[in-house]
Amino acid sequence: MEENPNSRLAIIKAACIIGIPILLLFAYNYSNSNFNIQFKKAFPMENGQLVALKKRNANPMTNPNALKRKKRASGLSSAEAIKRSLEVTDKTAPEIKPIYATDKLDTTGERVLLIGDSEAGGLRYPLNDYCAKNGHRFVASLEWNSSTILNYGYSNKVETLIEEYQPTFVIFVVGLNELYATDLTAREKAAQKFRDKLGEIPFLWVGPANFDEDNGINDVFKKVAGEDRFFMSKELVLPRGPDKRHPSMKGYKLWMTSIANFIQTNPIYPFKFDPPDKTNIPMKGKVMSANAAKDRGY
Question: Which of 56, 81, 98 corresponds to the end of one domain?
Fold first, then answer.
């Protein structure tokens, strides 16, 4: 049987259409010739992978718009710490040595109230160990998932908790859900409303353990709280949990050690927060949770 010339020509065309792009991609990957520079514009690659494929496998919890923003950091150390904290594991996490207070004579036990967003829920357990060690009573904790300073500033939950549990020391942890917030004037107003609710009660305002650089929310909180009563957490290198946003359990313990060290070395807090001898002590205080998606509080 005589072969059809048109059929042979169609096969050659198909082979060219499929084969030439494959050859070009292969040549681009393994050649240093000049034509690669022009080809890169159409098919950007990095470390032998198409950029588009890498983006598709990127961390879904990272805000893509944040990559376009100019990073607002207090310094290079902060940005580097955040980057490292996303890579460090429980095994590679740097140890944070606890500080023992030798010049604090106030042995009066405090009534400690912990409130905040989901990161407060993770700090609850190591905080309980510290309270038990130092004779403080951990009266209650509220983990308000997905909450921001707007929820705490405009709801009446804070007043209700203060009235019911009569704390003598409040630890407030917030900011994880507003790293990308740009309405900083409105956030500062809400932060001031929250601060006013505390009145004369001693407090420590703990900033978020950033998983990315923020747009200035930490600076807002520091301004409202005051430098002596604000703990800047974003510069800590902490191992992360599976979602890469929250610390792992070891990360929370390291974070709590850093917070305790801040209290120990801060003269405005006369009481001790020495490191515990035992961990995972049963919690006696009231444990509460809420979800701002269903209960925004105002």
Answer: 56
Q: What is the dihedral of CA 194, 195, 201, 203, to 10 degrees?
A: 100
Is the pLDDT at 34 greater than 50? The verdict is no
pLDDT tens per residue, range 267-283: 999 999 999 999 999 99
Out of 73-77, 103-107, 194-198, pick the least confident.
Answer: 73-77
Distance (Å, whole) CA 282 – CA 298: 33
- The boundaries of the domain holding residue 166 are 111-291
- Give the integer Cα–Cα distance in Å for 184 and 39: 43
The residues that bridge with 289 in the sheet, in sequence order, are 143
Same structural domain for residues 169 and 285? yes
CA distances from 102 to 41, 105, 159, 270, 272 (A): 63, 8, 35, 11, 9
Strand, helix or coil at 87? coil
Taking the C-alpha atoms of residue 252 and residue 263, their distance in angstroms, rounded to an integer, is 16
Segment 140-151, tens digit of pLDDT: 999 999 999 999
Over 154-221, what HEC string results?
HCCHHHHHHHHHCCCEEEEECCHHHCCCCCHHHHHHHHHHHHHHHCCCCEEEECCCCCCCCCCHHHHH
